[in-house]
Amino acid sequence: xxxxxxxxxxxxxxxxxxxxxxxxxxxxxxxxxxxxxxxxxxxxxxxxxxxxxxxxxxxxxxxxxxxxxxxxxxxxxxxxxxxxxxxxxxxxxxxxxxxxxxxxxxxxxxxxxxxxxxxxxxxxxxxxxxxxxxxxxxxxxxxxxxxxxxxxxxxxxxxxxxxxxxxxxxxxxxxxxxxxxxxxxxxxxxxxxxxxxxxxxxxxxxxxxxxxxxxxxxxxxxxxxxxxxxxxxxxxxxxxxxxxxxxxxxxxxxxxxxxxxxxxxxxxxxxxxxxxxxxxxxxxxxxxxxxxxxxxxxxxxxxxxxxxxxxxxxxxxxxxxxxxxxxxxxxxxxxxxxxxxxxxxxxxxxxxxxxxxxxxxxxxxxxxxxxxxxxxxxxx
Length: 380
Ligand SMILES: Cc1cc2nc3c(=O)[nH]c(=O)nc-3n(C[C@H](O)[C@H](O)[C@H](O)COP(=O)(O)OP(=O)(O)OC[C@H]3O[C@@H](n4cnc5c(N)ncnc54)[C@H](O)[C@@H]3O)c2cc1C
What we know:
The protein is α+β, with helices and mostly antiparallel strands. It has 3 domains: 14-61 and 167-235 and 322-373, 3-Layer(bba) Sandwich (FAD/NAD(P)-binding domain); 101-160, no CATH class; 236-319, D-Amino Acid Oxidase, Chain A, domain 2 (2-Layer Sandwich). The chain has 9 helices and 20 strands. The strands form 4 sheets. Strands 5, 6, 7, 8, 14, 15, 16, 17 and 18 form a 9-stranded mixed β-sheet that branches. Strands 9-4-3-13-20-19 form a 6-stranded mixed β-sheet, with helices on one face. A hairpin with a 5-residue loop joins strand 16 (260-264) and strand 17. The protein is globular and about 65 Å long. Flavin-adenine dinucleotide is lined by residues 23-29, 46-49, 53-56, 59-62, 188-189, 217-221, 224, 240, 242, 273-274, 315, 317-318, 340, 342-348.
């Protein structure tokens, strides 16, 4: 395999690699394995549950490159472009249809304050190459989605954003990576082994998996690795719940307001969400959340009042204090790369995160500007 050995945070030595281990089989870990394969590398993914068994398998899968924190703008657009190519390439490589599609997105304003804030933000949104974002009055918006409740002042129409089935995307990444030599194994990583400050193995119970590069792609559980590497990774679990509803009538255009959204997905169900709850690592769907989501949604989309609930899911986003991921090499430990903190945009950002990590593993550096998402930011 491709030799990949760090000699410091910025440089690498060529030599015989003992291997790359990726901890976490969510969408980020699977994307890392995929892009590693594209550069001639391979890895072992260690996953304690199942592939995309947490938020990567249950997220909505909205791919909206706009409206991210400023420092993420370029990476977000690059990731969107990667998604556009992936739908075809993964189908060819694995036969998996990730259900990627482009669609119109309506961002609704029900108060003067929201309308004002949206119009202010429009310059930034509208200036992104390849997208249009326009303010429309309520008549124009209702012409696109007539089932919206009265009281609407207007909104932004964005063309086009994407939607994907995240579980299928993760599975596509994994299967393609397996064809290129990577594999996934089951187990809970409990620590890392170092020789001086260079990583030499990943510990899974009593077993040691030798490696000279480890990628921490542990999602909401990333902070568990802080003790292993002697450096904090300040991620926290931000619980989100989604309802999937059966509703008579034509498919729904994607509409969002505040933190809520509704859209018909290719399974013909209307997915509505979502909550943002600080509940530790509890992934149980709750009655309270179901009621709260339904009340918020019915205010804007009254026809959903009689919808039949088909499924309710709950899972944990890997949130960070500044809403930016942690991506890059660690300080003081050689061969350790962090790839986490996708927060609400982890599906959208997964291709670019995987591609950058693969660059760092194989080439030792990347042409993407990752200074704003350096895991060591804020360290004195
Ligand atoms: C309700 C909801 C809706 C969302 N909608 C969107 C959306 O529309 N668009 C978007 O871009 N994003 C969305 N997201 C966010 C997105 O789902 C996440 O950011 C993304 O899935 C995170 O991926 P990950 O691979 O970093 O983490 P995860 O999917 O959590 O994967 C991490 C994996 O690491 C494993 N792991 C952890 N510790 C260990 C260990 N010690 N040993 C072995 N394995 C370990 C875990 O078991 C887990 O499988 C949504 C999230 C939620 C909750």
